[in-house]
Design goal:
The protein is α/β, with parallel strands linked by helices. Among the domains are: 159 residues, 3-Layer(aba) Sandwich (Rossmann fold), CATH 3.40.50.300; 68 residues, no CATH class; 177 residues, 3-Layer(aba) Sandwich (Rossmann fold). It is elongated and about 125 Å long. InterPro entries: AAA+_ATPase, ABC1_TM_dom, ABC1_TM_sf, ABC_transporter-like_ATP-bd, ABC_transporter-like_CS, ABC_transporter_C-like, MRP, P-loop_NTPase.
C-alpha cells in the first residue's frame, strides 16, 4: 500500500527531469506489480477470515438450539419464540460479519502511523495540523456511532414487538376473520411501525452526518495541511510532487480512519448480540435431577409429598401441593378434577417439567407422552407416527388400526404419506390427537402419560380407542398408564382414580371405594347427574348401576344421569386443541382422485426462489415508492458533489504547477491566498452537497419502506382463508421481519454507496481522460472486460444468495417447531435426534453459503486486476507524454487512478448488494399482490338493526375448499327460525365446521345461497356480515395483550358490560382474583391460562357482542362437564 505513493513521487520527478525513458517504463511496471501483490494477499486474508466466521456462526446456532431444548419453563416465558429465533438469525449473523474486519484493530493504527511518517518526510511538521483535524473528527464520529447504536437497540425492541404481534395475528388469523377484528390489529401493528419509523428517521439524519464527516474529512485534512504548510514559511512552496504524493498518502489514511469507527460500531452491535445470547445461554435450565430414576424402587411412578410450581417461589406460582401418588406396574390410573385443578400439571411434574419445591419424584423406564395439545411436526403422517423409530409394517398397521387412523388414511390424498403442513394444517383436531397417540403407542415405552387424549375425538371413536388402546384389552394393557380425562364413562374400568381439587389430591381409590366414601368424587358425579332428560337410555356399566342402586341419594339421579351421560362423552369430545395454530379443521377432506396416492401430496407449496435477474419493474416499483422528486434531487446533488471534488483537485494541480507564484524566491502572497481560498470554497461546496444528498436519499428510502410495509400488511389481512392454509406462517413472517428489515436498514445504505461509487468512477475516468486524452482508447476494452466480469459475477452471486436464503428458512422453522414441541421431545428423550436434524439443516445452509463467499473472492481478484490495468496505463501514458504534460497533471491523473481499484471493487459489490437486497422489494411486492377476499364494507350497508330476528336459510348450498377440490357441502338446504337452538352433528370431517365457515364467508359459495333475515349474505361487505354474527370457535385463540383487549379490541364497550359478560361466563371470580383484573396480561397464545379458561374467555367474548346469531363450534370441548353445564344453560 505504501510503496505506490513512493513510486508516484519518482514518476512525477521523472516527468519534470530529462532521464532516459526506460526508467519511466520501469516505474510504470513497478506500480502495477505492487498493486497486483496487494490484491492477491488481501484475497487470501478475506477468504481465511470468512471461513472462521462461518464456523463461529455454526457453533452459535447449534449451541442455541441445544440450549432451547433444556431451558426451564419460567425462562421460556421470558422470551417469545420469535425472540429466540432472532438470536439465531440476526445475532449469530453479526459475529460472522465482524470476523473479517477484526484484524483492523491492530492494522488500522499501523497504517495510520506509517502514512504519517511518510507525510512528515514530504511536508514536515505541518502534517500535525492535518492530523489534529483527523483526531478531532474521531470522537465526533464516536459520538454519532453511539447515538446510532442506541437507536438500533430501540429499533430492535420495536421490531421484536412488531414481529411477535404479526406472529400472533398470522397464527390466529382465522379468529380475526371470524370476528372482523382485522382493523383493530392492523392499527396495533401500524402503531408499532410508526414508532419504528420515528427511530429510523433519526438514524437516517445521523447516518447522513456520518457520511458527511467521512467524505469531508480527507478534504479538510489536506486543506488544513496545505494551508499551514504555505502560510508558516514563505520558503515553503507547494509543488506538484509534494501536493500529489501527500494527497495519495491522505487517501491511504482515509480507509483505516473510516474503518475504525465502523469497526467500533460493529463491535458494539456484536457486543449487544453477545449480551442477548449470553442472557439466553445463562437462563435457567430444567433441573435434570428433579425426577430420579432409581431402578430399585418397586413402583414405576412414585410422587411423595410433592409441591410443584411453574417457576418462581411466590405463593401464587405453586400449582400442586403435597401430592402423594403411587402407580403400580401395568395399572391404569385416571386423574380427574375440574378445569384448572392441576391435572396436566401433575403429568408435567412427573415429566420433570415443573419446578419441584419439596418431595421426590421417581420414574423407572422410558416414557411416552401425549400432550393435551397435539404437537405435529412438519413431515408426513407416517414420519409423525414413527418419530424416528424403524418401520415395522405389522406393528404399524396394528397400531394405526387401534388408533382409528385407518379410515383417515383412506380419506387423505396420499394416505399416510400425506405431507402435514406446518403445525399440522391439514388435519382436524381429532386426527392430530390420534396421530399423537399413535406416535406414543408406536414408541413402545414403559410408562404412558396421556393428557386427555380422547377429548378431540367423537364418542364412538373415543370408545374404540379406549377399548383397543388404553383399556384392559387394549394394546397398552401391559404398560403403566396415567390418563387425565373428563369422560365419566371410562372411570369404572380403571384401576385407580386420583381426584384433584385446587392442586391437591383430595382422594384416590377405585371407582367403588370412591362412590362408597361419598366424598368429593361422589359429589363430582352427582353434580353431573343434575340435569334431567328423558331422551334415549344409555346402558351404564353394571357395577355403576349396582352401586347407584345401593346408594339411595344417587339412585334418584340415575334416570337423569343416563341421558346426561351420553351427552357428556360427546361434549368433552371435540376438544379441539390447536390453540396457536391456524387450523383448517376439515381440509382433510381433500379426497382428490386416488391416483395421486403414491407420490405424497403436498399441501404447502414450495417457496419460490425467483431466478434470473430482478425484473426492471421491481426497480420501477421501488423508485415510484420513493417518489420522482427525491430521486432526481439525489442524483443531481451527487453530480454536483463530484464536480466540486474534481474542481478542487484540478485547481490544486494548477496551483502546484504555477511558476508565476514565485517572485525572486518568495511567494506572491496575493496569488497564494487566492489559490487557497478558492480551494477552500470548492471544499465547502463538496460538504454541503454531500450532506443534503444523503438526507434526501435516506428519507426517500424510508418513505418507500414505510409505504411498502403498510401495503403488504393491508393486503395480507385482506387475503382469503385459503391463502393462509397453503402458506406457512413462517414464510409470511419472514417477509415481515427479514425483508422489511432489509428495506429499512440495508437498502438505503446500499443505494447510497452505489450512487457514490458510480459517480466517483465516472469522475475518475473523466479526469484521466482529461489529462491524457489517449487514455480514452483504453477505457473501451477495459470497460467491456469489467462489464463481463460484473455480469457473470452478479448472476452467479444472486442465485447463490437465493439458494442460501431458501436453505436458511428450514433452520428457523425447524427451530420454532422444536421450541413448541420441546416438552414432547424431552419426554420421549429424542433430543439427540433433533439436534442432529438441526445440524444437518445448518450444514446444508453452509453448503449454499460457502460458494457465495468464495465467489466474492473470485470477483475481488478479477476486478482489482482491471483496476491495476487502469493504474498501469495511466502511468504509461504519463511517461509517454512527458514532453507535453506538466507535472501537476501527471500527479492528478495517477493519484486518481490509484483510488480506482477500490472504487471499482465497491461498485460491483454494491451493484450486486443492491440487486440481492432489492429481492426484498420483489418478495414484499409479491405478497402485496396476493388475491384478495371480497370487500370489507359495501355501501349501502345493511340496516343498523340487521339481523333483528336471526332467521338463517340455506338454499341448495355448495362449497369447496379451493379451486379444483371436491365439494365439501353438496347442496345443503335447511332453515332456522329466529331464536331457535339448532344442533348440527356428524362424525369428524363430515363438514360441520365447514358449514359454520360458510356463514362467515370464510369459504365462498360454489353454488346456492345463504340468507339471514332475507338478506343474501353474498351481497354484503365481509365486515358488515361478520360483525353481526358471533362464533365461539373450536380452538380458543387468545392474543397477547390485556384481558380487556382480548374481549373488546375496539374499546367499544363500557367496563360494566365487560364484567357482566365475564360473570355470565363464570370467569368473574377468577378475574377478580388477578392482581390487575381486566388489565391482566395474557401471554403469547394465552399460555398463562388453562385451556378451559381460554375457552371461557372466548365465550365471554361472544356474549359481549350480543348478536342475534350465535354459532358454537364444539365450543365446550375443553371444559369439564360442570362448566359445560353452566354454558348450556
Amino acid at each position: 500500500t505504501f510503496v505506490s505513493p513512493q513510486i508516484l513521487k519518482l514518476l512525477i520527478g521523472f516527468t519534470s527531469s530529462q532521464d532516459s525513458m526506460w526508467k519511466g517504463y520501469f516505474y510504470a511496471v513497478l506500480l502495477a506489480a505492487t498493486a497486483t501483490c496487494q490484491t492477491l494477499l488481501l484475497s487470501q486474508y478475506f477468504y481465511r477470515m470468512s471461513l472462521v466466521g462461518l464456523r463461529i456462526r455454526t457453533a452459535l446456532i447449534s449451541s442455541i438450539y441445544r440450549k432451547a431444548l433444556r431451558i426451564s419453563n419460567t425462562a421460556r416465558k421470558e422470551s417469545t419464540v420469535g425472540e429466540v429465533v432472532n438470536l439465531m438469525s440476526v445475532d449469530a449473523q453479526r459475529f460472522m460479519d465482524l470476523t473479517a474486519y477484526l484484524n483492523m484493530l491492530w492494522s488500522a493504527p499501523l497504517q495510520i502511523s506509517l502514512a504519517l511518517y511518510f507525510l512528515w518526510q514530504t511536508l514536515g511538521p505541518s502534517v500535525l495540523a492535518g492530523l489534529a483535524v483527523m483526531i478531532i473528527l474521531i470522537p465526533v464520529n464516536g459520538w454519532v456511532a453511539n447515538k446510532v447504536k442506541n437507536l438500533q437497540i430501540k429499533q430492535m425492541k420495536n421490531k421484536d414487538e412488531r414481529v411477535k404481534l404479526m406472529n400472533e395475528i398470522l397464527s390466529g388469523i382465522k379468529v380475526l376473520k371470524l370476528y372482523a377484528w382485522e382493523p383493530s390489529f392492523e392499527q396495533q401493528v401500524l402503531k408499532i411501525r410508526d414508532k419504528e419509523m420515528k427511530v429510523l428517521k433519526q438514524a437516517a439524519y445521523l447516518n447522513a452526518c456520518t457520511s458527511f464527516i467521512w467524505s469531508c474529512a480527507p478534504f479538510l485534512v489536506s486543506l488544513v495541511t496545505f494551508a499551514v504548510y504555505v502560510l508558516i514559511d514563505d520558503q515553503n512552496i507547494l509543488d506538484s510532487e509534494k501536493a500529489f504524493v501527500s494527497l495519495s498518502l491522505f487517501n491511504i489514511l482515509r480507509f483505516p480512519l473510516s474503518m475504525l469507527p465502523m469497526l467500533i460500531s460493529n463491535m458494539v452491535q456484536t457486543g449487544v448480540s453477545v449480551k442477548r445470547i449470553n442472557k439466553f445461554m445463562n437462563s435457567e435450565e430444567l433441573d435434570p435431577n428433579c425426577v430420579q430414576h432409581d431402578q430399585s424402587e418397586f413402583d414405576p411412578v412414585v410422587v411423595e409429598n410433592g409441591t410443584f410450581s411453574w417457576g418462581g417461589m411466590q405463593e401464587e406460582a405453586v400449582v400442586l401441593r403435597n401430592i402423594n401418588v403411587r402407580v403400580k406396574q401395568a395399572s391404569l390410573v385416571a386423574v380427574v378434577g375440574t378445569v384448572g385443578s392441576g391435572k396436566s400439571s401433575l403429568l408435567s411434574a412427573i415429566l420433570g417439567e415443573m419446578e419441584k419445591l419439596t418431595g421426590r419424584v421417581n420414574t423407572k423406564g422410558s416414557i411416552a407422552y401425549v400432550p393435551q395439545q397435539a404437537w405435529i411436526q412438519n413431515a408426513t403422517l407416517k414420519d409423525n407416527i414413527l418419530f424416528g423409530q424403524g418401520y415395522e409394517p405389522n406393528n404399524y398397521t396394528k397400531i394405526t388400526r387401534a388408533c382409528a387412523l385407518q379410515q383417515d388414511f383412506d380419506m387423505l390424498p396420499a394416505g399416510d404419506l400425506t405431507e402435514i403442513g406446518e403445525k399440522g394444517i391439514n388435519l382436524s383436531g381429532g386426527q392430530k390427537q390420534r396421530v399423537s397417540l399413535a406416535r406414543a403407542v408406536y414408541s413402545n415405552s414403559d410408562i404412558y402419560l396421556l393428557d386427555d387424549p380422547l377429548s378431540a375425538v367423537d364418542s364412538h371413536v373415543g370408545k374404540h380407542i379406549f377399548e383397543n388402546v388404553i383399556g384392559h384389552k387394549g394394546v397398552l394393557k401391559k404398560k403403566t398408564r396415567i390418563l387425565v380425562t373428563h369422560a365419566i364413562t371410562y372411570l369404572p374400568e380403571v384401576d385407580l382414580i386420583v381426584v384433584l381439587k385446587e392442586g391437591q389430591v383430595t382422594e384416590s381409590g377405585t371407582y367403588k371405594e370412591l362412590l362408597a366414601q361419598k366424598g368429593a368424587f361422589a359429589d363430582f358425579l352427582v353434580q353431573y347427574l343434575q340435569e334431567a332428560g328423558e331422551e334415549d337410555q344409555v346402558d351404564l356399566p353394571e357395577e355403576m348401576t349396582e352401586l347407584l342402586e345401593s346408594n339411595v341419594e344417587l339412585k334418584q339421579k340415575l334416570a337423569r344421569q343416563r341421558s346426561r351421560d351420553s351427552e357428556s362423552s360427546t361434549h368433552s369430545l371435540q376438544r379441539q386443541r390447536s390453540s396457536s395454530e391456524s387450523t383448517n379443521p376439515d381440509t382433510k377432506l381433500l379426497t382428490q382422485n386416488h391416483t395421486a396416492k403414491k407420490q405424497g401430496d403436498k399441501l404447502i407449496e414450495a417457496e419460490k426462489a425467483e431466478t434470473g435477474s430482478v425484473k426492471k419493474h421491481v426497480y420501477m416499483h421501488y423508485l415510484k415508492s420513493v417518489g420522482a422528486v427525491l430521486t432526481l434531487v439525489t442524483i443531481g446533488l451527487n453530480i454536483l458533489f463530484q464536480m466540486f471534488s474534481i474542481g478542487s483537485n484540478i485547481w490544486l494541480s494548477r496551483w502546484s504547477s504555477d511558476t508565476s507564484l514565485i517572485v525572486n524566491g518568495t511567494q506572491d502572497e496575493g496569488k497564494r491566498d487566492m489559490y487557497l481560498s478558492v480551494y477552500a470554497g470548492l471544499g465547502l461546496g463538496q460538504a454541503i452537497t454531500r450532506l443534503v444528498s444523503a438526507v434526501t436519499l435516506y428519507l426517500g428510502c424510508l418513505l418507500a419502506s414505510s409505504w411498502m410495509h403498510n401495503y403488504m400488511l393491508n393486503n395480507i389481512l385482506h387475503s382469503p382463508g385459503s391463502f393462509f392454509d397453503t402458506t406457512p406462517v413462517g414464510r409470511i413472517l419472514n417477509r415481515f421481519s427479514k425483508d422489511v428489515d432489509t428495506l429499512d436498514n440495508t437498502l438505503p445504505q446500499n443505494i447510497f454507496s452505489l450512487i457514490t461509487c458510480l459517480f466517483s468512477v465516472i469522475a475518475t475516468l473523466t479526469v484521466i481522460s482529461y489529462t491524457t486524452p489517449i487514455f480514452v482508447i483504453i477505457i473501451l476494452p477495459i470497460g467491456i472486460l469489467y462489464f463481463f466480469v460484473q455480469r457473470f459475477y452478479v448472476a452467479t452471486s444472486r442465485q447463490l444468495k437465493r439458494l442460501e436464503s431458501v436453505s436458511r428458512s428450514p433452520i428457523y422453522s425447524h427451530f420454532g417447531e422444536s421450541v413448541t414441541g420441546a416438552v414432547s421431545i424431552r419426554a420421549y428423550g429424542v433430543q439427540h435426534r433433533f439436534i442432529k436434524e438441526s445440524e444437518d439443516k445448518v450444514d446444508f445452509n453452509q453448503v449454499c453459503l460457502f460458494p457465495s463467499l468464495i465467489s466474492n473472492r473470485w470477483l475481488a481478484v478479477r476486478l482489482e486486476t482491471v483496476g491495476n490495468l487502469i493504474i498501469f496505463f495511466s502511468a504509461l501514458f504519463a511517461v509517454l507524454g512527458r514532453d507535453t504534460m506538466n507535472p501537476g497533471l501527471v500527479g492528478l491523473s495517477i493519484s486518481y487512478a490509484l483510488q480506482i481499484t477500490q472504487t471499482l471493487n465497491w461498485l460491483v459489490r454494491m451493484t450486486s448488494d443492491v440487486e440481492t437486497n432489492i429481492v426484498a422489494v420483489e418478495r414484499i411486492k409479491e405478497y402485496g399482490e396476493t388475491p384478495q377476499e371480497a370487500a370489507w364494507e359495501v355501501s349501502p350497508g345493511p340496516p343498523a338493526s340487521w339481523p333483528d330476528k336471526g332467521q338463517v336459510d340455506f338454499k341448495n348450498y355448495q362449497v369447496r375448499y379451493r379451486e379444483g377440490l371436491e365439494l365439501v357441502l353438496k347442496g345443503v338446504t335447511f332453515s332456522v327460525k329466529g331464536g331457535e337452538k339448532v344442533g348440527i352433528v356428524g362424525r369428524t370431517g363430515a363438514g360441520k365446521s365447514s358449514l359454520t365457515l360458510c356463514l362467515f364467508r370464510i369459504l365462498e359459495a360454489a353454488g346456492g345461497q345463504i340468507t339471514i333475515d332475507g338478506q343474501d349474505i353474498s351481497k354484503l361487505g365481509l365486515h358488515d356480515l361478520r360483525s353481526r354474527l358471533t362464533i365461539i370457535p373450536q380452538d380458543p385463540v387468545l392474543f397477547s395483550g390485556t384481558l380487556r383487549m382480548n374481549l373488546d379490541p375496539f374499546d367499544k364497550e363500557k367496563d360494566e358490560a365487560v364484567w357482566r359478560a365475564l360473570e355470565l361466563a363464570h370467569l368473574k371470580h377468577f378475574v377478580k382474583g388477578l392482581n390487575l383484573g381486566l388489565q391482566h396480561q395474557v401471554a403469547e397464545g394465552g399460555d398463562n391460562l388453562s385451556v378451559g379458561q381460554r375457552q371461557l374467555i372466548c365465550l365471554a367474548r361472544a356474549l359481549l357482542r350480543k348478536t342475534k346469531v350465535l354459532i358454537l363450534d364444539e365450543a365446550t370441548a375443553a371444559v369439564d362437564l360442570e362448566t359445560d353445564d353452566l354454558i348450556q344453560r
